[in-house]
Amino acid sequence: MRRRSYVSSVRDVAAAEKRDRVIDAAAKSLRKHAGIASFSLENVAKAAGVTRLTVYNQFGSRRALLEAVFDEIARQGGLAGIADAMAMADPRAALDRLIEIFCTFWSRDAAVGRLHDAMATDPEFAATLVERNERRRKAVGALVGRIAGKTASRRSRQDAVDLIFALTSYAMFAMLSKGRSAGEVRAVVKSACRGVLHSLLPERPAADRPKA
Predict the structure, then answer these.
(1) Which of 135, 152, 173, 201 is deepest in the core (most CB within 10 A)?
(2) Domain residues for 6?
């Protein structure tokens, strides 16, 4: 039994290493200028030095491989910090932190931009990105709800969520990045989001505000 356990452990480690190699090769493919057009299980397998069957057995489909790549990019890009931001007592400070996290993420890896550029031409990429972007909308919605409390109308809250969701998107970051540093982009987005909150959501009474 010990022998079998040892063999199994070695195989698990080897499989994990091979999976990491495939994910790394897939991410590198996406960072290339022609990465979207050439992205396939076969090409990724060749780049990783494994067979297409190995990639298929590990992931099952191109979409699943993309999901795994996105997860790794998100991990390296600091999106794990979203949970800590959402737990902050002051929702306005939490929103500022959320903006910082996403601005850093949008600017960190060229693969992020390639994937967003591909949404118009590749339905599979688009479906994956839309699903992940909706998680950002939910986070924004939760913070707007905490900021507004019961003092704002449903329409005002929804307008605020939609506008902040757009302001924190990759498309907005890419547009604002032309001629601006990453720090300047963060400042602009924060200012715009605060303007949205000020114009659409009434100020809550001091007694109802969260304690720092």
Answers:
(1) 173
(2) 2-60
